[in-house]
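Example 3.2
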Amino acid sequence: MKDNRDSTFLKHYPAILTIGSFIGLIASFWQAAERVHMLKYPTAILNCNLSPVVDCSGVLGNKWAALFGFPNAFLGIVMFTILFTAGLLLMSGGEFTKKFHKFILAVSVILILFSVWFFGISLYVIGKVCIFCLVIWAASIPIFWYGLLYYSAMHAKQHGLKKNLVHFGSKNHVFIVLVAYMTMIALFLLRFSDYYFH
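Structure, written as tokens:
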């Protein structure tokens, strides 16, 4: 018999996946549109330039914002579209095959790794952040974490690592997300403490 807490995150994962990926998709589209606007009008001041720290122009115009020669936002559009489609499938009562579930988990893993990487690049190399990146980073955390728990719960054996992860996650799933957010905020404030606290 499943723990009620297991059932809770299993029940809510489709909504988390759908809403989170939709938010990430909108942010990625908007970011891409701002980048295109920058290319058309290089001297234009973007509406998302909120401060010397939250500065879209400074981030989107940097080489790291186009890692593969095109804006990183295009990668976000692709990944979030895949995840959003998967979320709609679950919301409509559909189920993942094991292979497709592995694929969705792989996309979620790539998304969180890319998000963590660019978060570090933004803070410690570029020295600025983009408001759209903040939204994408925030969306990627629950998508990955609940996706990992959902996969583990659906394919866990009676004993083993996946079963232990599900047991741990069932008791701490919200706490883990909050810790991730608090860590991001702390790193952000520490990096830009001169601006915010002086």
